[in-house]
Structure formats: C-alpha cells, structure tokens
Amino acid sequence: MSGEVDITLMVNGEEQVLSVPASRTLLAALRDDLELTGTKNACSQGVCGACTVLVDGMQVNACLLLAVNTDGCKITTIEGLGEGGKLSVVQQAFVDSGAIQCGFCMSGMIVSATALLAENPNPSRDEIRQALSGNLCRCSGYVRVVNAVLLASERRGA
Amino acid sequence: MSEIESPIGKSPPRLEAGEKASGAALFTADLAMPGMLHAALLTSPYPHARILSYDVTAALAYSGVKAVVTAEDISGGLFGPVVKDETALARGKVRYIGEPVAAVAAGDEKTARYAARLIEVEYEELPAATTVSEAIAEDAPILHDDFAEYFKVYQAPEDAGNIMARAEATVGRGLDGFEEADVVVEGTYEVPAQYHAYMEPVAALATFGPDGRVTIWSSTQSIFRTQANIHEGLGIPMGKIRCVAPRVGGGFGGKAEASGQLVVTMLAKKAGAPVRLVLGRDEDMTTMRARHPGTLRVRTGAKADGTLVAREMEVWLDGGAYADDSPAVMNLALFYARGPYHIPNVRTLGHAVYTNKLRLGAFRGFGNPQASFASESQIDEIAEKLGIDPIEIRIKNAIQAGEPWLGGQVIATSALTQALKAVRDASDWTRAREAAPGCKRALGVSAMAHSSAFLASGAIVRLQGDGTVILNVAAVDIGQGSDTVLSQMCAAVLGLDFEQVAFATPDTDSAPYDYATAASRVTHTVGRAVHIAAAGVRDQLLAHAAEMLECALEETELRPGGRIGVSTDPPRNAEVTFGDIAQRSIWAAGGPITGSGSFMPHDPTDPEHTQMSGFLGLEAISVLTFGAQVVDAEVDEVTGAVRVHEAWCAHDVGRAVNPGAVASQIQGGFVQGMGYALMEEMLWEDGRLVNPSFMDYKFPGTLEAPDKINTIILETPEPSHPFGVKGVGEPPLVGAAPAINNAVSAATGLRLKQIPLTSERVLRGLLGKE
User: Fold this and answer.
1) Is B203 in the A-facing interface, judged by CB distances under 8 Å?
2) CA atoms of B21 and A105, how far apart (whole Å)
3) Which residue of A153, B447, B593, B618 sits 20 to 30 Å from the alpha carbon of A51, by its own alpha carbon?
C-alpha cells in the first residue's frame, strides 16, 4: 500500500522497524502492529489516559500521537516496566494495595505513576492526585490508587 | 487438633491483579484470531423513521469487505429481558439516533468503517417523541405498533400508547394515611441520564467452528443472558452457542444484556470467518445504555414529633426506544420508594415510557438512586420543617429486623440504626467545619437499603486427579472481585487456601447457569451455590476418608491444606490427602468427585400487607442490606461549584468475605454516585446526544473525588447465608446524591430538586434565592 512510512522505534528495549500509514496513531501501532495490547483505548480523545505510555521518558497519550512522529524514539509501555518476568515496584504496589479492580485503566495509571515517581520520588497525596488527574478510573474512587503510589514511593526509597 | 485458618475475612491480592498490573490481562478487544475480520456499524441518523429500502451494493463491492448484514439477514425473532421488543438490527423502523441498522465485516477496521458509510438506506422520517412528556401526549407517535403482541413477563397496561409499564403499590391506608400527619412536604424531583462510562467500551468476537457451533467472547456481565439473547434474536439453538467472558473492563449494569454480540454472530456466519466488533466511545455512548432519567413527585407526612406516617411517590421513568430492563427498574424504584423507614401508609405509582432515545437500562442501583435522591432529600426537608436533627429523625423511623418491607417480605436483620450512629460518630456530626472565604460548608446525611439476593445461580466444584480443586461458575468478575471472593468461599468449605482453588473462566460450555453479575447479588447468591457445591465435595471426601482410614464418618476431620485425619486418633498418625482420595476415586472406587449447587431465593410477597399490581415477581428478590452516609461538602457562592471534602460510608455487608474488596466497592460506588450528584448528565437535543465523549461528558477524576472516603464495614450476619454475607455493590452509590444534596442545602439554605448539582444550577439557585 502506498503512503506508508518506515519508522524505527525502540519499544521496551527492543528495536522495531515498522511500515505504517502516516495516519496511524502510536496506540494503533503498539496494539495492532506490535501486538502489545496492554495499552488500552478507552476514549480516543486523550481525555482518559488509558493509553498512557512513555516516549523518551515523557508521559503521553498514545491515542493522540502519530506513530510516524515517534520515529527514533524510545517507547515504554506497561509490558516494559517489569524486569525478568517480575512486576516493577510500582506494579507490585498496585497489586498489594488492592488498587486494581476491572483493570482497564490500570496500564495507563501505572505508567503515569511510574513517570511521576521518576520525577518526584516522594510525592504527597495531593501531588499524586495532580499527577494522575489525566487518568480516569470508574471502579476505584481513587483512594487506593493514591495509596498504591505512596506505597511504591516508600518501597523505592527503602 | 489443628485449626483451619479460614480464608474468610482476609483481603489477599486478587487472583488476577498481577496479570492486570503487568498488562497481560486479555480483554475482548485484545483477542485476535487467524483470518479475523473487523466489524463496523451503520447507525440511524433519525430518532424515528421507517426503513423503506437498503442498497448494500457499493459497500459489498468495496475492496476488503467480506460481508454486510441488515435486518433482512436476521433469522430469529424478538428478544429482551422483560419485554421481547428488540431485533439484532433495526427492522422496519429505527427508533433512536445511533440505533444499529446495518453492519460490515472487512479485513481491517478502517475499511469496515468506510464501507459502512457506503450502505444506502432509504428512510421515511416519522414524528418523534424524544421525551416522556412528548411520548405521553395525546397525539404522540407510537414507537411500537405491535406492543400488545410482544411477549412480556408482567401485566402491561393496555391501550396505554407509549407507556410500556405501569405499577402501583399500596401499604396500610395509602393516601388516607396523610390524615394522620401534622406536616406534609411535597416536591417534584428531576434526575438525569447517567452514562455507565465503564472504561472498556463494548466489544465482541464471534467465530463459527467446523461443527457449526458459534463461540462468542464478549465484554459482558452475563454469559447466559448473552446466550439467551443470541438464541432468541438469531434463532440459534442454545446448544450451538458458546459464550465466554474474558476479562471485563467494568459494566455497572450496562453490559448485562445484549451488547454487540448478535451483530458479530450474524457477520461471522455470513462471512465464514471470525469477526470482532469494538465500539468507539462515541458509538458506545450513542448506541448502548444509560441510567433512566425521570421525574419523581414525592409527598411525605409526619407527626409533629417526627414520626413518619405516610409516603406517596409517583415515578415517571424515560425507558428509551426498547424496554430492556425498564419495567423492572421502575418496579424497584417503587420497591425503595418508602425508604428504609417504618412508614405505615404508602402509595406508590410508577410508569416506564418508550421514547426515541437509546435504551435506558440497568445501572448500579437499578431505580434506587432515583427514588432515594428524591425521598432522602425529602426526609431532610421534613426534619428542617420540624426542627429535628436529620440523623435523629432517621434513627427515630429506622426500620428494624422483623418488620415488613414494601411488598410484605420480612426483614431478617437491620443495621440501619447502627449505621446512622456510626456515621454520626465518625464524622463528628455536630462539629461545624470552617469554610474557605466566599464558601459555605456543611455536612449532609442519607440512609439507604438495597436487596442482595436475586434470581438463580449454579456452581460446580470438581476434585482433580492431584487433589486440587476447580470451581466452575458463570458469574463474571467485572472488577468487583468476585473471582477471588468466590474462591475464598469455596476454599473455606474445603479447608484450603484460596489460591488452591482454580477459578475457571466463565464459559457456558462448562459452567452451570447464573443470571448475571448484577443486583449486588454475586457474593450472596452465587456464594450460596458455591457453598452447596463445595460442601458436596467435602462430604464425598470425608466418606472416602472414612473408608480409607477405617473409621466412622463422624470421626473424620478436615485439616488444613487438603488433608483428612481421624479426630479420635492422635493427630497425623493416620491421614489421607485430597490427592490420595482423588486417585482412589478415579482408579479404584466411587468415580470422580464432583459437587454441584443450585440456588434461587424465594421470599414471597404478602398481599395482605401490600396491594400490588403491574409488578414483575418480587419473590426472587430478598435479603435487604442497610447503610448510611455522611458527606462534608463546600459550596463556592461565587461560582456555584460544590466540592466534597470527605465522606463517611457505613454499610452492613452481613459478613465481609474480603474487607478490601468491600472497601473498594464502597469508595468506587460513592464516587460514581458523586458524579451522579454533581456533574454527570447525558444531554439530547431533538433526539441527538450532544455530549457523546469523555471530553463533553465529565465524570470524577482524582481532582474531583475526595481523598478521604472513610469506609465503615458493619457485620450483622445474614441468617439465610452459610457465611452470613450480603451484597454491597450498589448501596454506596445510592446514598451519595441525597447526602450531597442535603449538605448543599444545609450549607446554603438552597434546596435543589434536580441533579446534577452543576455549578450553573447551584449558582442560579443561589442568585434566585437572593
């Protein structure tokens, strides 16, 4: 098919060469081309944060970004947070805090929390709420989500 | 003798939390099959129109398109949970903007979506009735010309135009009871359409096997309701329909009935390939379901000392274009119309009305949030009029164990008084809070009741060859934690750790029937079936053990971790493991060990106590649970914005099998109820939804939800349940709106009777008052 663009992404530490239409979002490239389905599509408008990934360490909504614009970038998705088959400290804190219910928002929530802790290792509850304000959750009421980020912060500091 | 440490009352990490945290969990949109096609819908642009013809030539000719379906491809009949009035795709007429008319399957989603727009449908526009008042007007256009012929599970009104259901109930002297009142308060309350906003949009994947059977994976709250809808709507025998629920990203009632499964089944059959449909958020919001908007006229009479003597409630619910659960939702609004109080005289009347908008259906609370917003607001109005503290008046009238509920069913336990006292103490109710400059701040209270036993459930527990246990139920964990909680209950019966129970994926091929994950019923009602099934396995294990250990059955003793010993013998001298017994059962004696349980609540109403007409049967609804909430809210008098600072939620759960999951349900339910109270409202103009996106339909995020939602779990064991449990899924949502409304009123003196309490609405009210 004409109009496709070759791009090279470093996704979760692995180089990926893709040929994508210019209109393809990063979210579609991750989910459909690379079969990394952990990143979710819930609003397609950049409002809910379910598709949050890190692009060169920066937290972005993958549904709003074109894949071609991330050519040469380092992408981290929920699948890339753990190491050696083990959950990351943040992921484990979400499990242990009982923050996960239906789980559909959780990939984006956990990626956002990871970005926050990279920048601010000891956030207050208010700072956590500010940082996660772009991640909607319909199950939890957020109390245990904030608890999870605090627990992750404590464990990382320990 | 060693004690078995029961898994009941523990809050271990959920069975599936790890896979959800890692991103590995598979939801329907994450599933793919070789050769799978993608579906797209063509939906109605008109609120009401006759379909004159279809032309699918251009769509079919478009490169990559494999199949197109319209109502002409439907081989089945009508379906629907209480009125069979729906077809898989609009047939003959369209009845709302967004109603699926045709669907396309193509090699990729973009092609399917493009091709769907190439389908030409010729319509003849009809006058529309997009609101209840339009629909009940004398010359209103009729949505369902064949309504009288439809199959229904209740007595529907005859020749009532668009009124699909009408029910009434009278307790005591009914309206004459107002003669006993010293004060009467009357008001009309308006409630909005609330969108479920489950984070995972509706999705379904169907494939036909070489044996002609179809398998459907879908985002559903009930694999058996899915199967029934496909069976009725497409004329496929149930034996050829296998429904499976992968991980489900929330439901809240919106996914209990058909949601995309029939269309993918039609397409998969026609295309001869697997087909997957994933709705966009805008499509989900325009085509699926929402909570019933409505108008409720309420009147309450009280003695001067605060004793409530009479209640009248007249409910009008907008049911949308198809009945779905509307008659049942209206019935339950009436069921909760009296509130959790001892009011001797009650008269309630309800209507559910067809209109030209999407179907309004089940949503966490099921009629109760509407009724309770109105009635619990009114309790505060009475308290104010009489100069009685709002919590005092509730305690004074609180319903107690042994008293009949509306309908006449007798309440086994009531922790209502305890709940009210708990939130009063925890919130330090009489202490005034300091408001920010330009703001007013106060506490508000609400009380609520909700049922937790509902309809039929089955469970199968099987002992595998190595002595491990597998649990088969059809109940779908939609995020509330039932996989874990049901495993905990199964494990408790067998003396196992909950992780030693394998929880099977809900699948109609292996699990016995279960109605649905709905009505706060799973822990109670499915739990009862699980208990029966697990006890059956336990009894067989003990019988084997008695023979193997050569002791009397009464001497056998279940020990932790899957072992059985002899109680009269010093511990562990003689013992057999579940594995030993399993091997004996399949190679030597007895045959495989399987336990099954079936349960259905039966709690007849009492016609001597309550005269009722037009209701669906209430005898399969039982086990009321009670709760109370207090909120601390602040109103900005300049902007009208309402902020909830803190909430105290006391809920009786009978017994908390998993206190962590209970707390999550309370916190999440409260915040969803807060959205209902303050910001959530679907808005239509001439039948067109004007805010079909998360950008324009706002629900609480971290900046709106309070950080302090104090959960107070009360445990008054339910006598009819082996673990004493009741449900908690819905009550936390029910109380939020009236508690917040009462706080706003207490803070400002402004009594609004319409939610959501948007800044604009509050500000207008404040300005109007001054």
Assistant:
1) no
2) 10
3) A153
Chain A residue with CA closest to B11: the answer is A98
Residue at B378: amino acid letter: Q
Looking at domain A89-157, its CATH class is: mainly alpha
CB contact under 8 A, A143 and B707: yes
Phi, psi of B718 (to 5 degrees): -80, 120
Contacts of A129 in chain B (CB under 8 A): 702-703, 707
Pairing of strands A14-21, A4-11: antiparallel
- b or e along B606-639 (b: 16 or more beta carbons within 10 Å of the residue's beta carbon)? eeebbebebbbebebbbbbbbbbbbbbbbbbbee
Shortest CA distance to B631 belongs to which of B376, B454, B282, B451? B376
Q: What's the pLDDT tens digit per position in B468-491?
A: 999 999 999 999 999 999 999 999
CATH 3.20.20.80 is the classification of domain A4-80: no
Q: CB of A156 within 8 Å of any CB in chain B?
A: no
pLDDT score, position A3: 83
Query: For domain B456-599, which CATH number applies: 3.30.565.10, 3.30.365.10, 3.40.630.10, 3.90.1570.10?
Result: 3.30.365.10
**Mean of the pLDDT values across residues A104-131?**
98
Q: Which residue of B has its CA nearest to A100?
A: B17
Closest CB from B17, B670, B707 relative to A125: B707
B28 in A contact zone (CB under 8 Å)? no
Domains of chain B: which residue ranges?
Answer: 36-126+202-278, 290-454+605-769, 456-599
CA of B705 to nearest chain A CA: how many angstroms apart? Answer: 7
| Residue A124 at interface with chain B, using a CB cutoff of 8 Å | no
Residue A42, CA distances (Å) to A136, B229, B673 in order? 10, 26, 21
CA atoms within 13 A of residue B748's CA, in its CB half-sphere: 29
DSSP H helical ranges for B316-441: 326-335, 368-386, 390-397, 416-427
A30 CA to chain B: closest CA distance, Å?
12
Residues B211-233: pLDDT tens digits? Answer: 999 999 999 999 999 999 999 99
* ipTM attached to this prediction: 0.98
B668 vs A: CB within 8 A = yes
Q: B118 to chain A nearest CA, in Å?
A: 21
Strand residues in B673-707 grouped as ranges (E): 684-685, 688-689
**Within A37-158, where are the H helices?**
89-96, 106-119, 125-131, 143-157
What's residue B1's pLDDT?
A: 38
Cβ of A144 within 8 Å of Cβ of B667? The answer is yes
Which residue in A has a C-alpha nearest to residue B197's C-alpha?
A138
What integer is the mean pLDDT of A132-136?
98
Cross-chain Cβ contact B693/A45 below 8 Å: yes
B63 and A CB contact within 8 Å = no
Query: By the CB < 8 Å criterion, does B738 face chain A?
Result: no
Sequence-distant (≥ 6) Cβ neighbours of residue B206 within 8 angstroms:
B214, B215, B216, B261, B264, B265, B267, B268, B274, B275
pLDDT band at B577 (very low <50, low <70, confident <90, very high): very high
Does A91 reach chain B within 8 Å, measured CB to CB? yes
Residues of chain A in contact with residue B252, where contact means CB-CB under 8 angstroms, are 138
Task: Look up residue B194 and give its DSSP letter.
Answer: -
pLDDT for the residue numbered A1: 47
Structure tokens, B535: 């006890």
Diameter of chain A measured on Cα atoms: 54
Q: What's the CATH code, domain B36-126+202-278?
A: 3.90.1170.50
Angle between helix axes B731-748 and B659-678 (nearest 10 degrees) is 50
Enter the pTM of the model.
Answer: 0.98
Domain B290-454+605-769 fold is: Aldehyde Oxidoreductase; domain 4 (3.30.365)
Peptide bond into B571 cis (omega under 30): no
* pLDDT of the residue at B49: 98
Average pLDDT, chain B: 97
